[in-house]
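Summary for the steering committee. One of the milestones for this cycle was to obtain a three-dimensional model of the protein with adenosine-5'-diphosphate bound, which we needed before selecting residues for the alanine scan. The sequence and ligand used are listed below.
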Amino acid sequence: MNNPWTTELWRLTAVIALALLAGSLTQATTLLLIIALSLYILWHLYHLRQLYNWLNAKGKFHPPTGRGLWREVFDQLYHLQKRNRNRKKKLARFLNRFQESTAAMPDATVVLDAQWQIQWINSAARDLLGLRPKKDAGQYITNLLRQPAFKHYIEQAAFQQPLEIHAPADDTVQLSIRIIPYGKKQHLLVARDITRLTQLEQVRRDFVANISHELRTPLTVLNGYLETMQDDDDPALAPWQPSLNQMHQQTGRMKNIVNDLLMLSRLESGASHHSATVYMAAMLATIREDAIALSGDKKQTITLDADPGLQLKGNEGELHSAFSNLVFNAVRYTPSGGHITIRWHKDKQGAHFEVSDDGIGIPPQNIPRLTERFYRVDAGRSRDEGGTGLGLAIVKHVLQRHQATLLIKSAVNKGSTFSCRFPASTVVQTRPREDD
Ligand code: ADP
């Protein structure tokens, strides 16, 4: 196929040549050359106008019929336009499918722009969040979902964890809200109805709390009788002493489990959280004394290095339980002659409570699961040491209630460090107390 440009150049050359030939015959070369070139320009202008009209005529799909180079230009433009239309159609179909599927989703979905204004919502958002598809478009989401917890969630922008709130339209419905950032500072809000899940969770919690509570009294009675029989000098009981000791040990274990389960239920139920200034150095000194008693003949060195002027705002009972769990674990899982260090200090990130030991350590694959209930690296060893498998679960809950985080570093046969980091907002700097 001929190159249209070459053909066009030939056409121009032919026009000029014809004008020159006719000019040499008529002695009016300049005039004829001007006329020929003007006609040539007029021909181009005609096509240019056709192109202009075609581009401006909306909805006109087929291009004008041109000649020479212009036909080529029109054809290429036509194909470009056709490709664009197809692409647009495909995109529209995809968008439709996306909107249809999100509209059918049982979870409320809201598309938000960078300013937190609503761009699009699905129909579940109407039922769960009380939003109106057309009227609320362009509104700020915080003006429509007005719970303080939601506002705080958006301000904090910590979207790794979902937020649980009551549905604005119905207090009996519990929602789990997730915000997923995407594109250019846009956000997708997804709200899921978790009422049933929350109810089941509540049933489970109540069940554990009730059963623990019910077991407490019979266990106390049993334990009491066993203690009396152990202390009894009656020779008839003498052969039973080893069995009585074992029974006493086991009921003691059960009592510890029941107490830990009750503690966990209390922590989970979010029951009133009495907060006051906790004098840390004094509390840690008593924990150290208890740890020395627990350590017994193991001849472990237990050192305490606490900043006496650094106090915590929180619940003393809960914090005592969490810290003593960590210290007693260090005693239990560190062999005789080992070293345990308890530290309480402050830096730029907040205050830190740290327990380090040079004990048996924990294999890295077990570390992420340690705070699960009844999770033990070595169940036999934990039982022998009097553990319930609930200690670190209690620690996790107590720390959560104090906005603190737990960090575990450990190496097998080298030792472990359990650190609790408290945010600066929970720390109080005071003069040391007289008895610290
Ligand atoms: P337990 O009552 O069994 O000690 P915890 O929840 O307190 O239950 O601890 C869970 C598990 O974590 C323990 O069984 C033990 O395997 C491991 N663990 C906890 N603290 C230490 C430590 N300081 N050194 C080694 N292992 C530890």
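Key point for the committee: The CA atoms of residues 264 and 373 lie 10 Å apart.
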